[in-house]
């Protein structure tokens, strides 16, 4: 597989590893999303410390209002994180 194909496969595998913990096996509950962020994106952990931040994040991502994230909603989160990291890297490149 190419680097990009491997990255896509990894994103899908990580999503399903966390959705399988409880409830619907194809959606992330808020607790599963929090575990995923803490374990897979530890650099963001400082940003998602309190319940209010987690509630706000979940509410903004949960476009269908079912209190869970399906894969498309999860990919919105991954896209937002990726864009922020890219922008941060570009900003620091210019310094």
From TrEMBL:
GO cellular component terms given for this protein: cytoplasm; extracellular space; nucleus
Q: Name one GO biological process term.
A: positive regulation of canonical NF-kappaB signal transduction
Q: Which domain of life is it from?
A: Eukaryota
Keyword Calcium part of the UniProt annotation: yes
Q: Does the keyword Calcium apply?
A: yes
Q: Where is the EF-hand domain?
A: 49-84
Q: Name one GO molecular function term.
A: S100 protein binding
Could you tell me the keywords of this UniProt record?
Calcium, Metal-binding, Repeat
Q: Which InterPro entries match?
A: EF-hand-dom_pair, EF_hand_dom, S100/CaBP7/8-like_CS, S100_Ca-bd_sub
Kindly give the PANTHER family that the UniProt entry links to this protein.
Answer: PROTEIN S100-B, S100 CALCIUM-BINDING PROTEIN
Protein name as it appears in the record: S100 calcium binding protein, beta (neural)
Gene for this protein?
A: LOC109890659
């Amino acid at each position: 597989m190419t680097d990009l194909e491997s990255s896509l496969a990894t994103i899908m595998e990580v999503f399903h590893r966390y959705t399988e913990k409880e409830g619907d096996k194809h959606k992330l509950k808020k607790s599963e999303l929090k575990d995923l962020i803490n374990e897979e994106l530890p650099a963001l952990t400082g940003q998602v410390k309190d319940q209010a931040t987690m509630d706000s994040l979940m509410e903004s991502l949960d476009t269908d209002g079912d209190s869970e994230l399906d894969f498309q909603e999860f990919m919105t989160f991954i896209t937002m994180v990726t864009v922020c990291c890219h922008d941060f890297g570009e900003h620091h490149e210019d310094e």
